Amino acid sequence: MVGTVDTYRRVIALTGPVLPFLSFFARLPVAMSQFGSVLLIAQTSGSLATAGAVGGTLSAGQVVCGPLLGRLADRHGQRPVVLAAAGVNALATAALVTGALMDLATVPLAAVGALTGASVPLIGPLARTRSVALAHRAGAGPSVIGAVHSLEGTLDEVSFVFGPALVGLAALVAHPAVALGGAAALVAVFGTAFALHPTAAVTAGARTPAGSAAPARRRPPGVVYAVRGSLLLQGAMFGACQAGIAALTDRLGVPGQAGLVYAAMGVVSAVVGLAMGVLPQRFGLRARWRAATAAALLLSAPLVVTGSLPGLYVVVTVLGAAYAPHLITAFALTERYVAPVRLAESMAFAASSLVAGQALALALSGRLAERYGPSGAFLVAVGAAGLCLCLALLTRLPAAGAPRGSGSPAVLPERAPALVPTGAER
User: Residue 147: which domain range?
Assistant: First the structure.
């Protein structure tokens, strides 16, 4: 316990206590917008098809444009990119609320949804990139960098538990429009604050010295593509579990329990994610990847035969213990094997893979659940876990001494900030 606290104290010493706070609240709108838009449009239009179409375009916008925003952040720095994205996203989210309340037709609503997804400011991937840059600048060892990934993964997990919970609460006591309006306010305030935090200077963009040619953009090693595939499959597990949980709780006559079941999984995942920060370094990333995917397959298999609410709680809660380790390991592998000048773009690709897998699996497993019951959806989760394990077993990692990605290292700003922000900056 003492070792855990000490490790995370060193991480907070790098970032300052304010940055994780800002990044957490700036992530919440991402977790709120998908669920909130579906609830809002289903209620205002009375059509689940319209709600699904808008939710689908929102996910598609994020998947397609997320890596582009990451590339822009690598080239021009996080501050201008996040400022612009946060402003556009807040306006687009507000426009989506207005359009839904005005009973706008499906096509224009879907277009606004696409813009909302395309402008998501990628706080999770960019916060990882920034914290890792701070750790490397300080000469931190692998244990601290591993704790950075664990902390960021935990913040993601907690945001994706509390985000939908806030939407559900707002819809229950007021209206889904209140939840989406709150998401617009959060991204405007905390996204802007994240962009303006002094640590943004450490990710001010790669600069090519005058008179020299820009470094060639080469393909990252194969392991990076395998990791993206693994995250796509983890997203599929998320989506299939959501559909299966919703179908089973509905069959049992307790549909209101679906969110609580999913939240229980997220809480356990977050706790295990924090514990990942103090794993010994001899338990390397290859072993962690294989162990996490094997656990996901083993622990998801009982879902197919689960038929009671207590059993569902037990199985899903235990399954959560496998999710954060896989997520954290995947982002750590990405950070290890891509060039620093492409880190934000690669983190964005990884996050977009997760979103894409979730969206695709929700569409597929929802139909399977309607036709074959909850087990049809849960089979998708088990199948995705099996493919994840195959990727982890078959993918070869470059030798430990191999160069980190390709391309030249990022050229840091001439006047870089202090590694640990002063009390005034925090």
Answer: 17-206
